[in-house]
Specification:
five-stranded antiparallel sheet, alpha+beta, 10 helices
């Protein structure tokens, strides 16, 4: 090994703790301006592979190399003259491949680098690179959880095995709760005194917008979806029952900056309040009539899908997968007997659910120690995340790889918090 190779060699890191309840080890690092790095759980790497090669396999070769350098070589001296003379086009290509959260470490380097992050050329290069991997966003209120309590928000980068605190002081001090995230934007809803409000923001750029009032401005079930090709987003308010009145479906279009009223959902008995949005369609579970209600955003009409639920299903969650894939996740069994967690996929051609996986018993017992314990389930692309309210644990399932893994270091974050998948992006605008 020559001197140059020895200078960039990365020593192997310790294996991840096998117990999901064991607290992660804290690492010391320089706090970036704008974001504070919290704690990081050391990941486990296969034998013979360095952390840099494992990171490259999870988030791309260029992004993995840059992330490895920033995470493990923060104190390695670099020739300032080389970076000072780097052409702007080459610098943009390098920065576009660095994970977004780590870019905040580079902002204090110079005014030139600070300005580059707002340059349209950088945003275009950033939009052209693939995503740097999934993140989990947790949102909670401090203190007693009242309207004046400051919000606490953090993001866990699964490929980087690091958690970052997000400053959300730029939002109005309203009583907000997390609706969801899509394409780099995050949606909140809540009350400003007596009025129901909806806010969409980009946490990285701290740009935000208060949406105009709906025609029937009451507390609604909302879904956010971003259309990157149109550079726009939509918020869908599903049909709800408010008092003795059924509210129609409303859709907000950021291009028009207004809500439009669409068809009212036919009279149904909803199975749960959980919804899933995939392939420009919104799905809800119904008991009467049995099956699903599907809302087509492009046509604005509801349609019933007679897909019968599996037998002995105790609680089911609809989870959106990649493209047209729709999953049903739930427990099978009785509260007084053994249970199991299973995953089904909707067969659109046969209009039925096909079982594709079962949670191993050891994971099920660790996630839900009590048979009636509550859990949450949500997904992005072909990743499904399970969280336990009482145990404060997170479990991740990769549908493509058919692999289960604990999300280390999230016990204190999941208790009394709202969680969703989040894709950090600088180039997604709310205007």
């Amino acid at each position: 090994m020559d001197a140059a190779a020895a200078a960039v060699a990365v020593p192997p890191r310790a294996a991840r703790p096998t117990s999901p309840s064991r607290p992660p080890k804290a690492i010391r690092s320089t706090k970036p301006r704008g974001l504070d790095e919290d704690t990081a759980a050391p990941p486990a790497f296969p034998k013979g592979k360095s952390p840099s090669s494992a990171a490259a396999g999870g988030i791309g070769i260029g992004a993995g190399s840059a992330a490895s350098l920033l995470l493990h070589h923060a104190d390695v001296p670099m020739d300032a003259a080389v970076w000072a003379g780097l052409p702007d086009d080459l610098l943009l290509e390098v920065l576009a491949r660095v994970p977004p959260f780590l870019l905040f470490r580079l902002r204090p380097v110079s005014r030139r680098w600070e300005a580059i992050l707002h340059d349209p050329a950088f945003l275009a290069a950033h939009a052209a690179v693939p995503s740097h991997g999934p993140c989990l966003l947790t949102f909670s209120r401090g203190g007693g959880g009242g309207a004046h309590s400051p919000p606490h928000c953090s993001v866990l980068s699964i490929p980087l095995h690091a958690r970052y605190k997000l400053p959300f002081g730029f939002l109005p001090p309203w009583d907000l709760w997390l609706v969801g995230s899509s394409g780099g934007l995050v949606c909140f809803s809540g009350f400003d005194r007596a009025a129901f409000r909806t806010i969409v923001c980009n946490p990285l750029t701290q740009a935000w917008r208060v949406l105009p009032d709906m025609h029937y401005n009451q507390q609604r079930q909302l879904v956010l979806t971003v259309d990157r090709s149109r550079r726009s987003f939509k918020v869908i308010a599903a049909s709800d029952v408010y008092g003795d009145k059924t509210l129609p479906t409303e859709v907000y279009d950021s291009k028009e900056n207004k809500w439009s009223v669409h068809q009212m959902m036919p009279a149904v008995n909803l199975c749960s309040s959980k919804m899933a949005f995939c392939d420009s369609r919104l799905y809800l579970e119904t008991l009467s009539p049995l099956g699903l209600m599907m809302y087509k955003v492009d046509t604005g009409h509801w349609e019933h899908i007679p897909a019968k639920f599996p037998r002995s299903l105790l609680d089911g969650y609809l989870v959106a997968g990649a493209r047209t894939r729709l999953y049903l996740v739930g427990r099978i069994g009785l509260y007084s007997t053994l249970q199991s967690m299973r995953i089904w996929e909707l067969d659109h051609s046969r209009t039925g659910w096909v079982e594709i996986s079962r949670m191993p018993p050891r994971y099920f017992r660790a996630l839900l120690r009590l048979s009636a314990e509550r859990f949450e389930c949500f997904g992005q692309d072909n990743l499904i995340c399970f969280t336990s309210w009482n145990q404060g644990k997170g479990l991740l399932y990769d549908v493509d790889k058919k692999s289960w893994s604990w999300i280390a270091g999230c016990a204190s974050q999941l208790c009394n918090s709202q969680v969703c998948f989040y894709e950090p992006r600088f180039d997604t605008s709310i205007f």
